[in-house]
Design a protein that fits this description.
The protein is mostly helical and 71 residues long. The protein contains two helices and no strands. Helix content is 68%, strand content 0%.
């Protein structure tokens, strides 16, 4: 996973997302549809990553159960 050492000023975490969206819209280079795609794409990536992590946890839990119930 890529880790960043610094974040842009005033974008330290996702709570600042509305400011980013406001800025992008005010720049005149982004349409409402562009913003919806940007936000939707991020949400889908987060959901997919959550599903991947949950699947790995489940597989680990199943393996742990098999290993330790035989003793």
């Amino acid at each position: 996973m890529l880790k960043y050492l610094r974040t842009p000023n005033e974008l330290e975490d996702v709570s600042k997302y509305p400011k980013l969206i406001e800025y992008l819209l005010s720049s005149g280079n982004w349409t409402n549809d562009d913003i919806i795609k940007l936000i939707g794409g991020n949400i889908l990536r987060v959901m997919e990553k959550n599903e991947e992590v949950n699947k790995k946890k489940s597989e680990f839990s199943d393996l742990t159960h098999i290993l330790f119930t035989n003793f």
